[in-house]
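Exam revision sheet. Question 4 asks you to relate a sequence to its structure. Input first:
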Amino acid sequence: MALDIDFVRSQFPAFQADSLQGQAFFENAGGSYTCQQVIDRLTRYYVERKVQPYAPYEASRLAGAEMDEARDRLAALMGVASEEVSFGPSTTQNTYVLAQAFRKFMKPGEAIIVTNQDHEANTGPWRRLAEDGIEIREWTVDPQTGHLETETLENLLDENVRLVCFPHCSNVVAELNPVTEITALAHAAGAFVCVDGVSYAPHGLPNVGELGPDIYLFSAYKTYGPHQGVMVIRSALGALLPNQGHVFNGDVLYKTLHPSRAGSRPDCRQRRHGGLHRCAGAASRWTVRRAGRSGRVRA
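Answer key, structure tokens:
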């Protein structure tokens, strides 16, 4: 099916803004413009549903249901269970909180593999764990090609490696890495896998279930959605990591690694709730993108 460019453009009010006419927008690092579905969800949240969710009155019930909808729809698009999808203020903060969980999970002398092809967000938090005796091994690119060679990774893997971190697509050299192949090598050595998908996700949400990593992170605000980070953490790993959130939420996987429960700004709860509502709108945008102009757009 040919992509209907006019239909796609019609989903984004920014294309009708006078101040943006005749310009191309390449500022993905600052985030993408949001689609109408996201704007509609945000407006409805602030007008009708800006309340504590899941209480026994209508506005609260609807607020909670819309938050659940966002998680369910994104999980379905990515081929994972709903409880394996977590939301946070940004991918950078999600990775930082995740690293704090690994700080308690790992022992001195155990190792994490990072690359020099990564964005700082998926290397800096892990490198800081060296302060606690965690060995940091760097998987370096081939200086001639920019590739991360799997043979080099195999030489770095041994029984001490607990985690391998790498980008799905590098924002440094525009390299697309074979996630499934790398994940299989790491798993065979007994290591978990963390993939930074921030630079890949704008080109198409991945089926994380098929790719196989234990952790996959991307930014909703770079994929036509609200300013939030989305993190998939598979339940087998999530059950092993110490809770970084409220004590009473320790048995709910998607609440255990949420940075707003671990010392972020005091307004994060409202940002999180509103952002979750808007992520349902972003899911609509991805549904439209996949389906083409075959039917009514779901808001």
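Marking note for examiners. Residues 268-291 form the longest helix (24 residues).
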